[in-house]
Amino acid sequence: MDATLALPRLAERVSAAERANPQAGESLKGPTPNEALEHAQALWNSGARDAAIDLLQEAVAVAERSGAGGAYPQGNPVLLPLVRELTRYQLAESRHSAVWDVLTRLEPQLGTAPDLWAIRGNAAQRLGRHQDSVHAYVVALQSRPNEQRWLLGAAVSLAALGQTTSAAEMADKARAVAVVSPEVLGYLRQMGVPLKDK
């Protein structure tokens, strides 16, 4: 089936169900979060990237409204998978401002999900918001302190802020986890980070 036809056909089924049972109409409106996720993935895989992003943005907005006012220290379980996929798609399309906007707006409902904090750090770094990037990576690292990519991400933003000693500390932690590519180390050295030879 053409992925671009999936949503209209889903809407037709919902409409028919509403006619058959009008009192249930409110609960039947629109796809469920899982259906939205599946349709977005099908659209993305078929090359309809803008449509996939639009669908996920709508699904996120619905989930955001339904979860407003709740306390989610571990993150809103309905919202998390939608936001993960949405921001993954947005990053792939270099929509860094959109990623930053959605993750900061939804922070109360996203809790301490470390991967989303790391994505937030990545987006902030791409936007030149290096202080925000460091903060986001540090939050992510509290849950997964040995995630090499995040340590290096923090090191790059610290170096951009001129905090080269702190950047070196982050880079050394990353090197203790696994080998870091010579290109990354060379880039940090060019930024003035005093890395030790190993």
Summarize the structure.
With about 200 residues, this protein is mainly alpha-helical. It has helices at about 5-20, 25-30, 35-45, 50-65, 80-90, 95-105, 105-110, 115-125, 130-145, 150-160, 165-175, 180-190.
C-alpha end-to-end distance: 55 Å
Helical proportion, percent range: over 70%
Morphology: elongated
Beta strands, count: 0
* Low-pLDDT stretches: 1-28
Main beta sheet strand tally, sense and closure: none
Order of helices and strands: HHHHHHHHHHHH
Q: On the 0-100 scale, what is the average pLDDT?
A: 87
- Overall radius of gyration: 21 Å
Strand percent estimate: under 5%
| Class per helix and strand makeup | mainly alpha
So how many helices?
12
Keywords:
198 residues, mainly alpha, 12 helices, 72% helix, disordered N terminus
Model description:
By secondary structure, the protein is an all-alpha fold. 34% of the residues are buried. It has helices at 6-20, 25-28, 33-45, 49-67, 79-92, 96-105, 107-110, 114-126, 130-143, 148-160, 164-177, 182-190. The longest helix is centred in the first third of the chain and has 19 residues, at 49-67. Mean pLDDT is 87; it is low at 1-28. It is built from 12 helices and no strands.
